[in-house]
């Protein structure tokens, strides 16, 4: 063999070795690229799953808060219903009480009318006591400062005996059930 042939064979060997190395490096690069793509796609999938989990947790927490609010409102409604259960009955009885009060102001002229008035007064007191047991209170108005939450001004007056904004006359009694006004007092207020 000549030197030229040896050199050619060596060159060919080197070229084949180098091409094998290039193929190996290329294969390794492809594997790394595939792993990177897999890692990237896995990271993307992982991020998407984490976002879905976070969204689901937020929905769950909002639903729990909504349910707690609903339960609290329902409890408050039940308490209010129990507290003010007699309101409609009391509202219906107020005109009857007003009529009793008007009837009790009548002057008795003989023994029979006096005994009837005494009986009416006993019934009236019984009704008032029953209402008090339910939590009904009469709103005090005479001589008090006018309060638009408790009083309904139907007239004004100018009386030097009273200060400004003081109730000088009560036309109709007002009533409260616990802390709720059932009917405001109809009053005349001093200017």
TrEMBL record:
The keyword Nucleotide-binding does not apply. Belongs to the GrpE family. GO terms for molecular function: adenyl-nucleotide exchange factor activity; protein homodimerization activity; protein-folding chaperone binding; unfolded protein binding. Keywords: Chaperone, Cytoplasm, Stress response. This is Protein GrpE. It is found in: Cytoplasm. It comes from the Bacteria. Residues 18-42 have a biased composition (Acidic residues). One of its GO terms (biological process) is protein folding. Residues 1-50 are annotated as: Disordered. InterPro entries: GrpE (IPR000740), GrpE_CC (IPR013805), GrpE_head (IPR009012). Homodimer. Participates actively in the response to hyperosmotic and heat shock by preventing the aggregation of stress-denatured proteins, in association with DnaK and GrpE. It is the nucleotide exchange factor for DnaK and may function as a thermosensor. Unfolded proteins bind initially to DnaJ; upon interaction with the DnaJ-bound protein, DnaK hydrolyzes its bound ATP, resulting in the formation of a stable complex. GrpE releases ADP from DnaK; ATP binding to DnaK triggers the release of the substrate protein, thus completing the reaction cycle. GO terms for cellular component: cytoplasm. The keyword Cytoplasm applies. Pfam families: GrpE (PF01025). It comes from Oikeobacillus pervagus. NCBIfam families: PRK14140.1.
């Amino acid at each position: 063999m000549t030197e030229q042939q040896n050199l050619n064979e060596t060159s060919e060997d080197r070229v084949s070795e180098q091409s094998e190395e290039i193929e190996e490096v290329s294969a390794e690069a492809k594997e790394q690229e595939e792993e990177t793509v897999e890692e990237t796609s896995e990271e993307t999938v992982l991020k998407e799953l984490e976002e879905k989990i976070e969204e689901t947790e937020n929905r769950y927490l909002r639903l729990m808060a909504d349910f707690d609010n609903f339960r609290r409102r329902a409890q408050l409604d039940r308490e209010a219903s129990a507290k003010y259960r007699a309101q409609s009955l009391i509202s219906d009885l107020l005109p009857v009480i007003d009529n009793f009060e008007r009837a009790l102001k009548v002057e008795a002229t003989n023994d029979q009318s006096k005994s009837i008035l005494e009986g009416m007064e006993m019934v009236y007191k019984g009704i008032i006591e029953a209402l008090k047991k339910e939590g009904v209170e009469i709103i005090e108005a005479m001589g008090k400062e006018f309060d638009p939450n408790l009083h309904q001004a139907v007239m004004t007056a100018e009386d030097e005996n009273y200060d400004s904004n003081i109730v000088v006359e009560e036309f109709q009694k007002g009533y409260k059930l616990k802390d709720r006004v059932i009917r405001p007092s109809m009053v005349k207020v001093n200017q």
